[in-house]
Amino acid sequence: MPVYNREKYVREAIDSVLSQTFTDFELFAIDDGSTDGSTEILKSYGSRIKLIQQCNHGPEVARNKAAALAQGEYLSFFDSDDFLFPNALAIYDRIIREFDSPPVIIGSEIFFREGKPIPAQAFAPRPVKVFTYRDYLSKTVSVTGVTSKFLIRKSVFDEVGGMRNSTAQTFHNDDLNILLKTGTHGPCIIMQAPYTVGYRVHEGNSLKNIEVTAEGVLSLARSERLGEYPGGSGRLWDRYVLLGGRASTWAWKYCWRNRQRKLAIQLLLGTAPMVFASVCSKLLRYVRKPPQPTVLPEQ
Question: What is the pTM assigned to this prediction?
Fold first, then answer.
């Protein structure tokens, strides 16, 4: 859990982790050079969390630092303004056992706005429903960029070199970057239900910075052109679909709608082949039978 100036939210985030029904975990909180009261809040937990302090290098450097010290088989990423449902880690543990330690697991999130509680029905018990794919590049369902729902086997994270050595200004789209780096490792399990993560929508969300996030998408496109992601030419189309989906969504939903028309056009032109692949993929979904989740038996 990287923490940078989150005194308003970090206690609820940490408490949601420490309240898990599954208890065989360690929680690393990385104070990323906070200048508010976050540091004091983190220190108040004592030995219940493992506190790391660093200058403001950004979340990717923070996560890499914690991952190097982690003893667990899996790395569960979590942001300091989100909420982890009480049974989340228990559900992940069950999926790990049911599917023989898959390298990548993606949970299910519900969005809630600051100042409003998570709907009570979100806590209601529901059957565990998952989609199983050969790997992440093979997925045919939409996945939002909520890093707090990502679980990656530590050996795989280490094998791909972890996250980038980015900065507090250049980390944007770190979620898609790590999914592309681990995209050929399988199987990949994507949850449909129940919810495991609550994503808090507030003015401090990093995606509110439209310009730097758009540049982050273009940075991923440059990395793709440099051959930095696995799969070679045989998985080029799959990677293009993912990158084009992120570029087109950002260009329309955030840039264009917020009257940043020039930025939207620059983003689309800079990722044109990828956007084309994404559009074709979406059109094909209309003529294909939608995937059906696997429902795990009641325990």
Answer: 0.96
